[in-house]
Amino acid sequence: MDFTSQFWIYLILIGTVLSLLFVVVLAYRNQHTGSAANETTGHVWDEDLTEYDNPLPAWWLYLLYLTVIFGAVYLVLYPGMLPNGGFLNWTQLGQYEAEISEANQAYAETMEAYGQSTPSELAKNPQAMKTAARLFSQNCALCHGSDARGAPGIPNLRDDDWIYDSSPDAILTTILDGRYGVMPGWEAVLGGREASEDVANYVLQLSGEVVNVDSAKRGEAKYKTICAACHGIDGKGNPLLGGMNLTDRIWVHGGSFEQIVDVISNGVTSQMPAHRNILGKTKSKLLAGYVLSISD
Ligand code: HEC
Ligand code: HEC
Predict the structure, then answer these.
(1) Residues 147-187 pLDDT 10s
(2) How far is the CA of 12 from the centre of ligand 2 (A)?
(3) What average pLDDT does range 191-201 have in this prediction?
(4) Measured in whole angstroms, how far is the alpha carbon of residue 209 from the centre of its chain?
(5) 245 CB under 6 A from ligand 1?
């Protein structure tokens, strides 16, 4: 509470001092005027109940004086008697700030050490991975899911299937600079919806699905002239272009016949946002370590 004038502070101060003095004087008087001769106070209750007027025991009195002295010293040292926080100048806010700055210092030192490590080293450091898991849920889970298993259009980070290079450095690059995967739409080039369906059948055949063999046969030639440039002649993908592996039965954009025809006809673009300016290098390294640690 803010006191608008010093008046109230001094009033409370005087009140406190007076009541402390009052307690001491009362105790002192009792010690020196109380009779030692087992006299009673003269009051009688219930016909025969009387009260001795003996001095208080010495040990009790000294304990009382001690608490009074303790109280007075405490009130002078800490905020209580004096305005502005007492002789020690202690404030709740001051203590809070001191604790925060201590914690920040420790945090900065830990982060400094992480900054000197590689993602692979961090992946083996349980303490670092605890921090990384928190960073993941704050920055990545929104898209990749809290369990990092992805969502339609967003890759699973727990499996051993990678769109891009999966070396620790490449994963760090993905996080720092982002990735932009562009699959153009091919319907016009291929010559219509039916041609897209032929290529889709061929794509499904690549991953061992049972399909319309004649249609797949027609698709194969088109695949080899158009698609192989980005997805490889064998369909196993090209990590440099982000051309996904089409043979592993892992579909980021859906694996039904209709969904595959749709991707081939209309194309799809995906963006992994750059995190260099959001997280900086050390936190991105922690996350690269995290991705390494959770993937098979
Ligand atoms: C806005 C959504 C979004 C956010 C946020 C996001 N990602 Fe991504 N991420 C994607 C998409 C989409 C892709 C696929 C990009 C592509 O296909 O070109 C991707 C790809 C990746 C890849 C490459 C996977 C592979 O198979 O090569 C990694 C690694 C990755 N993200 C890690 C992270 C980490 C770590 C974070 C948190 C810092 C994060 N992502 C935050 C959407 C997101
Ligand atoms: C210019 C390079 C390029 C060419 C040519 C290309 N693609 Fe793609 N394709 C990509 C990229 C990049 C992606 C990943 C898009 C993303 O990151 O979401 C992709 C994604 C796909 C997917 C989705 C895979 C999944 O897991 O969901 C299919 C299916 C596909 N392509 C089939 C084809 C077929 C069939 C052709 C030929 C008609 C073709 N692509 C030609 C670059 C290409």
Answers:
(1) 999 999 999 999 999 999 999 999 999 999 999 999 999 99
(2) 79
(3) 96
(4) 43
(5) no
